Amino acid sequence: MHQDLQERPRLHYPWPDLISPYVDELEEEINTWLLHSYDCIPKDIKRKYEKTRLGHITARFFPLASRERLTPLNMNSLWGIAFDDYHEHCTIDQLKRLKHRVEDILIGAPPLKEENAIFWQLAAMRDSFAQFMPTNWLARFSNSMGEYVQGMVEEAPFKARLHSPSLREYMEIRMKAVDVYPLVSFAEVVIGYTFPREVIYHPLMRRLADLTCRIVAWCNDYFSIWKEEDKDIMNIIMVVQHEYKISREEAFAEAVRIHQADVDEYINLCNHMPHFGIHNEKVKEFIHHNNLMIQGHKSWYEKDTQRYKPGGHPEADQFRGVEVVV
Fold first, then answer.
1. Phi, psi at residue 101, to the nearest 5°?
2. Alpha helix (H) residue ranges in 38-179
3. Closest C-alpha among 318, 231, 312 to residue 49
4. 160: left (phi over 0), alpha (psi -120 to 50) or beta
5. What is the mean pLDDT of residues 270-289?
6. Phi, psi angle pair for 211, to nearest 5°
7. Buried b (16+ CB within 10 A) or exposed e, 238-267
8. What does the alpha-carbon distance between residue 278 and residue 240 come to, in Å, rounded to a whole number?
9. Which stretch of 89-98, 166-175, 304-313 has the lowest confidence by average pLDDT?
10. Distance between CA atoms of 60 and 295, rounded to whole angstroms?
11. pLDDT per residue over 216-272, tens digit each?
12. What is the pLDDT confidence band of residue 176, given thresholds at 50, 70 and 90?
């Protein structure tokens, strides 16, 4: 955790802080994939990814998952960071094409021989999930990943010009671009249960997913502010500071207040869910694993990763001008 955060208002959750007993195996798995399966990522960035401790984020997100189900979840941890970094400087048109390509591969399209390892690893991840999850879940996963890339499309103009969106615009974009809707669906992978449409698309379940995205997004912004300063504007602390014309200290406090309001609403919602009939116990189990994921996300910043410290992440222009085949 960045030393300046010791003097800031802190983030708090009421859930257990757990980690998978397979954490060391997951780190080893990540390093093997980095060595053999991501030839499009430069070696110096691979070394930084090793310090990111992506196996730890998988282990903290899904501490109770079985070993076999942790493999596709771990694949997603590496794929997500590689995809995000590699395509950070893409044009809007490129991102729009990437969105469709990601969606197509996740519902069964094969990667093309001219496409790089990121696309081939996406297909491998799809096939790994398909061992456990049905086609309707994969279709939902595809849609949620498409929403993530759509968020990248919508934030691109602001990032390119370092122009601050309004707070409302930012919140709407960030909920997609934070790439958490897929993580919410991963609770179904962990519990080995796919909900029917009337459950997973119930308005209160949708609100639960939205609040999860918001909570994780504001938490990420809280810990990543020093990484993004001077090269990115898409951070709730910077947006709040710009919108309200307040000091950085005041913006931190307001961002923490927004985060806590979302946490309070989330907890209240969890405590007042309707009865889902034959699915009710599985909904409770789903919520429990989602709670662990939210807590594990914060703990990863506080205890594990070097990504948000000086030298722990790719430099601002390190992926600028890379070849994007879409």
1. -70, -45
2. 43-52, 54-61, 67-86, 92-106, 117-130, 135-161, 167-177
3. 312
4. alpha
5. 99
6. -65, -35
7. bbbbbbeeeeeeebbbbbbebbeebbebbe
8. 44
9. 304-313
10. 8
11. 999 999 999 987 676 789 999 999 999 999 999 999 999 999 999 999 999 999 999
12. very high
CB contact at 8 A, 234 and 158: yes
According to the model, what pLDDT value does residue 65 have? 99
Q: Among candidates 170, 126, 132, which has minimal Cα distance to 151?
A: 170
Q: How many CB atoms lie under 10 A from the CB of residue 100?
A: 13
Length of the chain: 326
| pLDDT above 90 coverage of the chain, percent | 86
pLDDT, residue 307, reads 76
Could you tell me the residue ranges of all domains in the chain? 12-303
Q: Are 157 and 169 in contact (CB under 8 A)?
A: no
Residue 39: both structure tokens together: 């030839």
Place of tokens 């493999």: 71
CATH architecture group of domain 12-303: Orthogonal Bundle (1.10)
pLDDT for residue 318: 59
Instruction: Report the amino acid identity of residue 134.
Output: P
